[in-house]
Structures are given as C-alpha cells and as structure tokens.
Amino acid sequence: MNANCQRPFSHALDRLRAAGLRPTRQRLALAKLLFDGCDRHISAEQLHGEAVAHNIRVSLATVYNTLHQFTGAGMLREIVVDAGRSYFDTNTSDHHHFFYEQSGRLEDIPGHMVAVSKVPEAPEGLSIRRVDVIVRVAG
Amino acid sequence: MNANCQRPFSHALDRLRAAGLRPTRQRLALAKLLFDGCDRHISAEQLHGEAVAHNIRVSLATVYNTLHQFTGAGMLREIVVDAGRSYFDTNTSDHHHFFYEQSGRLEDIPGHMVAVSKVPEAPEGLSIRRVDVIVRVAG
DNA sequence: GTGATTGCAAATCTTTTGCACTAAA
DNA sequence: TTTAGTGCAAAAGATTTGCAATCAC
Fold it and tell me: Where residue B48 sits, what CATH number does that domain have?
C-alpha cells in the first residue's frame, strides 16, 4: 500500500454507513482492501484472491455481491473492456481509460488529457448516464 | 432487409477471397447474412439464430470462430458493452455508439456527432489501436 | 489426396442464484 | 427477535477447445 495514496479521512465504516449498507465483517474488510490505498482497477477474482491472502474469510459469491452493492451505492464504477471480464474502479470521478490489449491491464487517463466534445443528444425520453472512453493501446 | 442498404458491389465471395479466407459454405452464408443489408450490431447467438432461421446448417461454435476470423480480417469490429456479451459491428469505419442500458441495444452515433479532442499520447513504445466511445443512455 | 474447416460435445470461465445458516440491529 | 447478509454448491451463460468427420482446392 502506497503511502502517497492513503485516505485517512475515509474510514470504511463511515463509507458503508453513508451508503446505507450494514457494516458486516466482510463488507468492512473488502472496503478496506479497496479504498485504503491508491485507486485501482480490480476484478472480482483478484479481490477475492487478496482477501484470502489477508486471511479474510469471504466467498467469491459474496465478493461479487459486495462489488455490485458498492457499485450501486456509487462507491465503485464498473468498467467492461473485454468480453467476459469486469473491472471495478475505485475512482468514481469522471475520467477515462487506457486499455493495454496485451496484458489486459486498465489505467486511468488523467482527466484533462481527454475531452469529448459534441456529445450527442440522448434519444427522445432518455438521458445520458455516462460516457465511457476507452483508448486501446498495444505494441 | 432494407433496400436502402443493399451493397451490390460487395459480394460475400469477393470479401472472403480478399481476406484470404477459404469460402466455405458456412462462411459464405454468414457473410451474406452479415453484409447483404444495413449495418448491424449482432451477437454470436443472434447470428446463429438467423442462420438457423434461414436453414443454414452451422454450429454455434463455427459462428464464434467465423465472427473472430472476420474480425481479424477487418471485416467486423468487436464491441463490448456488457460483461459477458460481445457484439460485432459490420460498420468498421471510425464511429461510436449509444448503448441502451435497458434493452441492451447498441446503435451507431453518426460520426460527426461525437468528437474526441485531445486524445492522449500512447504510453512509451505502444500505439493507439482504437478509441471507443460508448454513450450509455437509459430512461 | 491433403490440409483447412466444421460439428459436436465437453470443458472453461465468469457471474448469478437458491437456500439453510449466521450475524447485525 | 427479526431481518439482512453470507457461504456453499449448483446453475446459468458465454465462449473456447479437442478431435474425428467433411469439404475446398
């Protein structure tokens, strides 16, 4: 965990309470893994692996459920780049991504380095929920 | 099939030859379904369904293989919007998409209606393969 | 013929679900 | 208590793979 990224004022417990999620042992532990460090892009499988490595007893199904609950609460953002694999981004602010096709890695693009101009109108009766920009790079 | 979209000069056979793909019965039939009409966004499952409806004997596995071969040959473009579902777009020109979150439908955004300005540099040693813009809309 | 292509079924992989059990309020 | 949350194992999809049979050249 990189000291540069510590977020001392964002306690997992408070985040869960604010989201109206009951702070269970598993949710607290996962929230700590997710938010007590730098922003990251992580898959359910990876997070489950980290939990196991930290001796946190949690099932993969609960990891999935929790990731979706956190996403629903606005604490995470789900990003899909690849058929059949979702990443969850702890950075929920408006920003975009590089996708390294070779390694499958995802990386934030600093917000000011991409701009979408002339976003079209949403079709009649609908509204724009989000604009995702994925810049795919490879060797 | 909309008469407005016919592409009389683009015969499936020629497209396959140009791509260096042996024009088998299955590839020819799938190419006709894909390219003899308007541009479309289609999943493997949907294309297989259409083939069956047209009495084309082809397995789902072959549909997957063929879609990937066509994509590799630049005849299709793969688009991922949803974990666990790929669409293939017969329009390979530079353009972007609306994604209707409710219905799961994908729709082209006319090219001039979106512009990405200030695309960032690709990281050292890599090059940008593509920039995907997905505008997610919902009620 | 000969090697590329296909079909089929089985395997894989990610994600979701049903239900009895456990824990938070 | 009472109800939300969890674990487990099984189910559900989507996609890939292995291999014998088939087809294009």
Answer: 1.10.10.10
Residue B84 lies in a domain: no
Distance from C-alpha of B90 to C-alpha of A82, rounded to nearest angstrom = 19
Residues B109 and B61 grouped into a single domain = no
B105 in the same domain as B64: no
Q: Determine the number of helices (DSSP H) and then strands (DSSP E) in chain A.
A: 4, 7
Question: Would you say residue A84 lies in a domain?
Answer: no
- CB nearest to B135's CB, from A100, A101, A131: A131
* pLDDT string in tens for chain B (139-residue length): 555 776 655 688 989 998 989 999 999 999 999 998 888 999 999 999 999 999 998 999 999 999 999 999 999 999 998 887 899 999 998 899 999 988 888 999 877 778 787 777 787 888 999 899 999 998 8
For residue A44, which residues of chain B lie inside 8 Å, CB to CB? none
B57 C-beta less than 7 Å away from strand D: no
Q: How many domains does chain B have?
A: 2
A99 with A40, same domain: the answer is no
> Which nucleotides on strand D sit less than 7 A from a protein beta carbon?
4-10, 13-18, 23-25
Task: Say whether both A75 and A108 belong to one domain.
Answer: no
A72 falls within a domain: yes
Q: Which domain holds residue A9?
A: 1-79
Mutant choice from A77, A85, A95, A119 vs B, greatest count of B C-beta within 10 A: A119
